[in-house]
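Objective 1.3, modelling of assemblies. Example input:
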Amino acid sequence: MSALSFDAVRLPPECDALRREVRAFLAAEIAAGTYNPQEPGNDHGFSPEFSRKVGAKGWIGMTWPKQYGGHERSFLERYVITEEFRVANAPVRLHFVADRQSGPVLIKYANEAIKRDVLPRICRGEVCFAIGMSEPGSGSDLFAAATKATRTKGGWLINGTKVWTSNAHHAHYLIGLFRTSPASKENRRHGLTQFLVDMKTPGISVNPIYQMTGQHDFNEVVFQDAFMPDDHVLGEVDGAWKQATSELAYERSGPERFLETFYVLQELVRVLGANPDVRGAEGLGRLVAQVHALRRMSVSVAGMLHAGKEPVVEAAIVKDVGTIWEQALPHRARDLAAFAQDGASNRASFEEQLRFATLIAPKLTIQGGTTEILRGIIARGLGLR
Amino acid sequence: MESTSLIAETASRLLRHHCDPQTLNNAAGTTWQGPAWAAMEQAGLPLAWVPEDLGGAGVGLEEGFGLIGLAGRYALALPLTETLLAGWLLARGRIAPPPGALTCAPTRQGDKVVMASAGTVSGRLRAVPFAEGAQHLALIAEREDGSRPAIALVALADVRLAPGRSIAGDALNTVNLEAVRPIKSEMAPVGFAAKDLLAMGAAARAMQMSGALAAILEIAVAYANERVAFARPIGKFQAVQHNLARLAGETAAAMAAAGSAAEALASAYAAPAGATPPPSESLADALFLEVAAAKIRVGEAAGVGAGIAHQVLGAIGFTREHVLHRFTQRLWAWRDDFDNESAWAVRLGALIAARGSDGLWPLLASR
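Predicted structure (tokens):
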């Protein structure tokens, strides 16, 4: 087993100026009525207007090469943007996945023409991406994917169904994992290929799947002889499994992995008031200690990524511990608020946000890699498998 | 945590040679303690935080915290951390520490020592680690007349000790001082108070616990890979893997929280001892968050982590013969030193409530 590493990383001074700038920007947007931070579920956080403004500020594709519209700033500066937007409940849904995951995949594996076409539009906040991994018969077990891409003249024909696809109803593009060959006896992960899918392609239909919150976030995406040109293959044909794992450290250790229900903690502080009883103070103190520790872990991983390391196990730990925490938070807040003053001015808003957070909480340990999958990755890192 | 500095290398070598947990466990008894302590003193470890002009090694705070984390990895049952803290405290008053083992107090908020105008000190101090066995006590005393507190060095021969042991069996005593005349006392630097010692002690215990957690994670993983049941190593079972993954998560949280608090204190006290005021009148909010969060979160991790390690090791981990208890018992004990999770959580919660909702995120993000 290799020793875990969580050094005390501090964000560099240039992050302070950026943080002030972001906070001023968000305060102005809230004041102008662009969005209401008290309604975390509102419009599902999807706002073309807001995303374009963020793009204009240079806060999408921050770490990407300038030739593709990026800004060549540091990974730690991007960290500041991500956490400030998350805490302010900013409506980043349109560009967030493209910024975090899809863009970096294109930079690594797409051909030059696609990079020059798509990446600058992502940076301007105009393009929404979806990720097509899960299928009716394969979720956590990615390598069981069966949706087929078969050779045809000049490209490939895709047939099959992806499911639980967030944003597909808004998305301009989808990066999908499709079966191009059967798995081999030696390697069950063999035979999958990543494609950049233009969602306007004929033969693609998107059907909504409503969530128990009443919201529409994910979808079923059906492919019927949808044609993908050859140059839309990303990376190696049949070798996508090699590509899928390296991006996970970025996906799993960010501040969005423990701050998704943070507004409940802020409302709880308000409900408990300036002089909580011992029970309220102790509960609050523990929650704050826990979220502080999570942020220190997450910033530490960000520092390692910034230094060019691949802290895969550490990142999985941040997501495991972080999502469990953000999932438990609404329930802890409910407990602690039980004896709080009924007269608190934000009581109604607290109740409403608590209800919303409680409803969305079950998904937090499922999306982007379940707890069970993460613990398998951690166990492998510990040398147990 | 394990820096590659000279002091860390020396400490690693000494600990491996004199304090290997398995060797000590097999030997039973305490005959190892004399030679181990002598070797550490020889290497200048116990007074590492004391400036050279006061007879110490003049090592930086962060390196010293690294040393303390290393001691935790060995579940070291000697007052190394206590002597480091006492030396640090005495140096704030420009007092040269005497040779031998030291300890420090108060270790609980609410306990206090008062210095009378005649210069004698009185008070009752609970839970002073290793008071029995150490030669001297470094303490911070309030003044009867309300002026700046005093830092004082007291001979433990001059005080009344109530016998006591921690859950790990290490000395943990109530100290009664009745008009005791200190060997030496000096005025504390401006703004320096008992809570500064409490913060340093809490961060030190957090570092020790994170070291011990890293050790039990290694022990539990190694055991799970060796122990065969149902025809395969138990580490191949998912239920065991997931328990160990949780232990890794708790260890990670402890390492991050403790390391961050240690770094924060090291930066805050970077100025030479006594030359400039310490960070603030009372610890600044951000520093308080760092220390309180570390003691709370690491204490929680210690409780959960020790439980998981015992579950993985089964009956053998419950024997005196196996080395695991040296770590888990100290994890349980260290949670309580320099105030436990609950005590710190009440104070941190009160601070957060007083700052108000809008002050929460800026405080977290300032670290």
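Chain A has a mean pLDDT of 94.
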